[in-house]
Amino acid sequence: MTVVPAGPQGWPAPGTDGPAMLPVVAHGGHGADGLGLLPLLPVVLLAGSYLLAAFRDPRGWDHRRSAAWLVGCALLAVAVGPLGQVPDDPRGHMAQHLLLGMLAPLGLVLGAPVTLLLRVAPPSVRRAVGRLLRARPLHLIAHPVTAALLSTGGLALVLLTPLYAAAERQPTLHHAVHLHYVAAGYLLAWSLAGPDPAPRRPGLAVRIGALLGAAAGHSALAKYLYANAGTLPPGLTDPDAGAFRSAAQLMYYGGDIAELLLAVALFASWYNSPARRRSAIRRAAGDLVSRRS
């Protein structure tokens, strides 16, 4: 930050060059004086706590799960670290959305943190987690259709209302929007493809339908933003239409990649599920009996 002392009536003070300026804090980091890196602290705590729990697992924790969790944490760190410090740019904000709301949550979900917690926590904590998983409100929130609506609908609320402009001016609201991205993205990935236990997870057809619906909503929102660049999001002063069109393209193609990865995780979780394996064993046994008879 550069400040040129102001003289009378706004002219430069003697001995200075350039117009008088007031101190300005760059939006990108939503903080100054060393506070810009503060959002990295929760990411470090997430990574460290997980690794400590994995080390304490008496049966030995799957290193692939640990790797997935660390990849998710690394993507979070990129989103709130380097991308969080860049100046105002809708393309940077859209990259943050893709990392926080789609890519990082998938890595975190594939890390199976709830399963790890149940393996290392004391009985009282395991009972509390079990009660939470059986709670009726969680049954509604964790349904894939609800999770898809929260994810895509939340993004639509940000882009189609003055919420985006308000978050530009208020750091607390800005971080709250990012927290929603992470929570909604985690909920969607968990409900569709999570290895952790989930309350009354529906069958494959319902989960595929929810994923397709979320993907369609995401791409439609990207096209709408592209077509209305310069007027959306509302409430901005002199928005850069070209930058918002580029952001919409990033949202469209980046979203396709993230949704493809989520689809791969969904089919992999279904293929490796104990229920599918039991069904395959029963069918094989039935075929064997029928051939012998």
From TrEMBL:
Compartment(s) of residence: Cell membrane
List the keywords (alphabetical).
Cell membrane, Membrane, Transmembrane, Transmembrane helix
Q: Which GO terms describe its cellular component?
A: plasma membrane
Instruction: Determine the domain of life of the protein's source.
Output: Bacteria
Please classify the protein's predominant subcellular localization into one broad category: membrane
How far does the signal peptide extend, from start to end residue? none
Q: Where, by residue number, does the polypeptide cross the bilayer?
A: 37-55, 67-86, 98-120, 141-167, 173-192, 204-226, 250-273
Q: Does the keyword Transmembrane helix apply?
A: yes
Does the keyword field hold Transmembrane? yes
Topological type in the membrane: Multi-pass membrane protein
Recorded protein name is Cytochrome c oxidase assembly protein
Query: Organism source for this protein?
Result: Micromonospora profundi
